[in-house]
Every structure is written in structure tokens, then in C-alpha cells.
């Protein structure tokens, strides 16, 4: 671990387990009720916007369209009859054959039937749209994360049927204990790391992340708080969904002190020390430090370290100044 420079006001903090999750995930469903007769996708499938996901039995919807069209024809006929009656009533009224009240009734009847015709026309449009809604399509490019409806199942309008994660937008979700959540706020910086397999072995890839959201209440089952972090652009390609990752939160530095993992500290005759990489980078030297405070797996060092020092944070108790060492570059053998 390299001690941060004086320009950086952040030190190393606790590390927690996290998981790569979609930034935006939508549970989509049919806009009309019906029985599912086909599902075209499975979990993990990549879909483009407009790709069919599932289909309902459209026979009842087709009958609904025919019924609405028949009602429109009847309403249109009534409207035409009322319009003709109104025209005759106006002629008779002009000849003073009928009273004003009769003309007013004809006007009202024509307006009423015209309104029923417009209502029937709107019902036809609604039924035709409903028939088109028998096919559920992807609203955006993404990855299928859940299938909540099976063939033969009767679903209600709006009932979630398929989960879609928007492609290219991922973040990290981590569950933090109550003692740590007090120091984590939206906008805080963290380092996200995971191990990936390559042709010549495994490598550790890291991203800088920023806290986007902190749950306002603890999970009732685990007592932890869900924190979601957005990966900052640049560097390595974004990881795939579902991968496990480690999240190391940074901690504010306190007036020239440095925060290091407790595993880096060794005690010689009860004196706290750390192993520091030498100038030739092939040996380590034991250096005495003064500890200001300890907690959450971290040690705040008041004296003994300087910006740019590289210290051993794992296996420090097994080292000796006579051993030849090789700094770890982040690549596993």
C-alpha cells in the first residue's frame, strides 16, 4: 500500500463486500389482462428496444375489437337518423308547423346521439390499442434480469412480467453496518476492486466510485444499510452484472495523520511498527510508528510515515529484513 500524498485529503478506510447491479432496472408488464401463451426471453438475454418479450392470447382482445366496432356502427346509424330528424324539424319549425319545444327536443337528440357516436369511436381506438398490447416489448436496450410470468399464467394489467436492466449502466451495491454508515454520505469516494480471469492468469481491476445513494433505514432482517455507488468513467471497462466486488471506503485524514489497515502493524517489544519498502524495492525495513487511534480495522498513524512510503499490509508478521521481496503489482500468478 502506498501512503497518499499530502495533496490527497483521503486515507484508506474499511473494506466491504459488494455486488455489481444495474443502475436502472424496470419491471415491465402487459397493459391489458390476459393469459400468457408465449415467453420469448430468458434471464441473461440481451434485448434491443422493441424486442418481443412475451405474448398474450389475443382472441378475447380481437373479439373486444369487433364488439367495439359493432357498437360504433350502431351509434353512427343513430346519429345519422337523429341528424335527419333535426333537419326535418327545422324545416317544419320554419313553416310554423311544430312548436319550439319539439325543435329543442330534436336538437338535444341529435347532440346526444353524436356524443354516443364519439364515445363508441374512442372505445374502438382503445380496443385496437389493447389488441396491440397483447405483445410485450422491451422498452430499451438491456439485459433480462427476471422472468416473472410463465406460459399459461393469467396476468393482470400492469403486473410485472419481465425485468430489464438498462445496458451500459452499472453500479455497486454494498451493505454496511450501522457503525460505518455514520461516516458514509452521498458523494463519498470509494475504491471498487474485483478479480478477473485472463489468458495468463488472474488480475485485480479497480475503479474509483462515488456514493450515489444511502438507504435511510436499515434492512429489518440484516440490520445493515444498503449503499449504492456509481463507478466513475475512465480506466477499465465496466464489469458485468452479478460480479462480486470489494468496496474500500476512504476515510478523512486528520491533520497530517495517515489511516492504514490494522494488518500492517506489527509489534516488537510492544512497540508498534510497520514494514516499509526500501529504496531498492527488494528489501523491507521495520519502522516505528506512533498510533493516534484505532477502530474498524484501521489504525490512525500520527508519526513515522510520510507521503509516498510503501508499506506491507498483508503477512507483515512473517517478514524479516533479510528477506528478498518483490512488490505486488496487482496481478496474481
TrEMBL record:
Residues in Multidrug resistance protein MdtA-like C-terminal permuted SH3 domain copies: 260-318
Keyword Chloroplast: no
Statement: the UniProt record of this protein carries the keyword Nucleotidyltransferase: no
Gene Ontology, cellular component aspect: efflux pump complex
Domain of life: Bacteria
One term of GO molecular function: efflux transmembrane transporter activity
Multidrug resistance protein MdtA-like barrel-sandwich hybrid domain mapped to chain residues: 27-161
Every CusB-like beta-barrel domain range: 172-249
Annotated Gene3D superfamilies: 2.40.30.170, 2.40.420.20, 2.40.50.100, Helix hairpin bin
Signal peptide residue numbers: none
SUPFAM superfamilies with a match to the protein in the record: HlyD-like secretion proteins
InterPro entries to which the protein is assigned, alphabetical: Beta-barrel_RND_2, MdtA-like_BSH, MdtA-like_C, RND_pump_MFP
Cellular localization per UniProt: Cell envelope
NCBIfam families xrefs: RND_mfp
Family label: Belongs to the membrane fusion protein (MFP) (TC 8.A.1) family.
The name this protein goes by in its record: Efflux RND transporter periplasmic adaptor subunit
Originating species: Gemmatimonas groenlandica
Amino acid at each position: 500500500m502506498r501512503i497518499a500524498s499530502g495533496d490527497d485529503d483521503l486515507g484508506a478506510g474499511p473494506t466491504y463486500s459488494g455486488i455489481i447491479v444495474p443502475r436502472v432496472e424496470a419491471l415491465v408488464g402487459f397493459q391489458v389482462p390476459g393469459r400468457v401463451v408465449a415467453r420469448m426471453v430468458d434471464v441473461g438475454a440481451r434485448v434491443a428496444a422493441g424486442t418481443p418479450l412475451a405474448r398474450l392470447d389475443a382472441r378475447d382482445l380481437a373479439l373486444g375489437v369487433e364488439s367495439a366496432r359493432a357498437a360504433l356502427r350502431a351509434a353512427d346509424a343513430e346519429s345519422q337518423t337523429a341528424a335527419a330528424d333535426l333537419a326535418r324539424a327545422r324545416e317544419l319549425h320554419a313553416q310554423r308547423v311544430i312548436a319550439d319545444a319539439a325543435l329543442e327536443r330534436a336538437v338535444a337528440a341529435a347532440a346526444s346521439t353524436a356524443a354516443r357516436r364519439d364515445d363508441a369511436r374512442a372505445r374502438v381506438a382503445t380496443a385496437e390499442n389493447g389488441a396491440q398490447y397483447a405483445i410485450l416489448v422491451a422498452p430499451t436496450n438491456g439485459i433480462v434480469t427476471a422472468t416473472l410470468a410463465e406460459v399459461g399464467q393469467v396476468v393482470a394489467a400492469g403486473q410485472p412480467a419481465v425485468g430489464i436492466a438498462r445496458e451500459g449502466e452499472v453500479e455497486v451495491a454494498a451493505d454496511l453496518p450501522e457503525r460505518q454508515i455514520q461516516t458514509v454520505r452521498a458523494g463519498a469516494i470509494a475504491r471498487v476492486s474485483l478479480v478477473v480471469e485472463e489468458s495468463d492468469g488472474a488480475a485485480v481491476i479497480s475503479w474509483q466510485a462515488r456514493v450515489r445513494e444511502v438507504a435511510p433505514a436499515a434492512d429489518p432482517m440484516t440490520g445493515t444499510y444498503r449503499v449504492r455507488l456509481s463507478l466513475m468513467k475512465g480506466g477499465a471497462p465496466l464489469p458485468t452484472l452479478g460480479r462480486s466486488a470489494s468496496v474500500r471506503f476512504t476515510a478523512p485524514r486528520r491533520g497530517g495523520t495517515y489511516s492504514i489497515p490494522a494488518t500492517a502493524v506489527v509489534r516488537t517489544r510492544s512497540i508498534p511498527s510497520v514494514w516499509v519498502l526500501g529504496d531498492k524495492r527488494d528489501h523491507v525495513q521495520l519502522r516505528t510508528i506512533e498510533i493516534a487511534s484505532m477502530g474498524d480495522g484501521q489504525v490512525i498513524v500520527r508519526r513515522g510515515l510520510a507521503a509516498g512510503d510503501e508499506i506491507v499490509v498483508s503477512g507483515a508478521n512473517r517478514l524479516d529484513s533479510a528477506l528478498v521481496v518483490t512488490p505486488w503489482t496487482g496481478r496474481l500468478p
